[in-house]
Specification:
single chain, about 290 residues, mainly alpha, flat
Length: about 290
């Protein structure tokens, strides 16, 4: 079973069927393990060992192209993550608004001492007003807090996309490299901000990680709960469900810690790459300025 449309369809379908949910967990873990094994056996060697025909150390133009391309990619990733974080925050506000509607409707239905005209309609209108007000205020606060950061990242992504495109046409290498190196030095300074946004948002960005956490968390909560309430089940089955729930909880903890380590590892690689790039930029600028 591979990470294809068919494989994930089987996981989703079996996860929606109560008695086949355990199969969905097994299939999801198998897909994740096969994808991880493929990446480690096929992709990592290609990244660690340069292929035949690797070019010699970069000249100034190559340094500009590679650095501006990386700046554009990293700033765009940070922008996408921050936009998605704002969308997720608005989704949480909508969910809170739904809860407020239910609480207001049921609370007033049970607590109002006087009789309202057409109680269901009156309570629905009142609950909708309070819920709508909560959603509007909550969404306004989310946009008020997130929008300045998003505008800042939009400016970065647009600036470095334009700078990179100006370096790619034929004949662009004949210009003065100092301005491009100064832009790249600014990108090296800004890279810590982009990496911080990616490190704080990426954990919630990956749908596969979210699905795995949901399945493991669901099993860690549902199986022990079923073992406690399943008074009619033999003790062997109750012990098995409790042990399986404990295994799911351990798997959840392991997966979260492993995923966080992967994010930190990528951040460390990018940090070292930008430190090396910054040293090369400063050395080249010093050479140009010293004549």
């Amino acid at each position: 079973m591979d990470a294809t449309n068919l494989g994930w369809s089987i996981v989703l379908v079996t996860a929606l069927i109560t008695y086949l949910a355990v199969i969905a967990v097994g299939v999801g873990i198998a897909i994740h393990a096969r994808a991880r094994a493929f990446a480690r056996s096929r992709v990592v060697p290609l990244l660690g060992n340069p292929p035949l025909g690797t070019l010699p150390p970069m000249d100034v133009q190559s340094l500009l192209l590679e650095g501006l391309s990386e700046a554009q990619r990293l700033s765009q990733e940070a922008l996408d993550y921050e936009r998605e974080a704002r969308q997720n925050a608005v989704g949480i506000v909508l969910f809170v608004g739904l809860i407020v509607w239910v609480v207001v409707f049921l609370g007033f239905a049970l607590a109002v001492p006087f009789q309202l005209p057409n109680p269901p309609l009156s309570l629905a209108v009142l609950a909708s007003f309070v819920s709508g007000l909560t959603v509007v205020l909550g969404s306004w606060l989310v946009y008020l807090r997130r929008s300045p950061k998003i505008r800042e990242l939009e400016e970065d992504a647009s600036f470095y996309r334009t700078a990179w495109m100006r370096q790619t046409p034929p004949g662009s290498a004949t210009g003065e490299p100092r301005a491009g190196l100064e832009m790249l030095l600014r990108a090296a300074t800004r890279s810590s901000v982009w990496r911080e946004v990616r490190a704080s948002r990426r954990f919630w960005h990956d749908p596969i990680a979210g699905l795995a956490m949901f399945i493991l968390g669901y099993g860690a909560i549902f199986l022990p709960f079923l073992a406690i309430l399943g008074a009619g089940l033999p003790w062997e089955w109750r012990a098995f469900l409790a042990a399986l729930g404990t295994a799911f909880a351990a798997g959840e903890i392991w997966f979260v810690r492993h995923w966080i380590r992967d994010i930190q590892s990528q951040d460390d690689r990018d940090r070292r790459s930008w430190e090396q790039r910054r040293a090369a930029i400063e050395a080249e600028l010093w050479r140009i300025l010293s004549g």
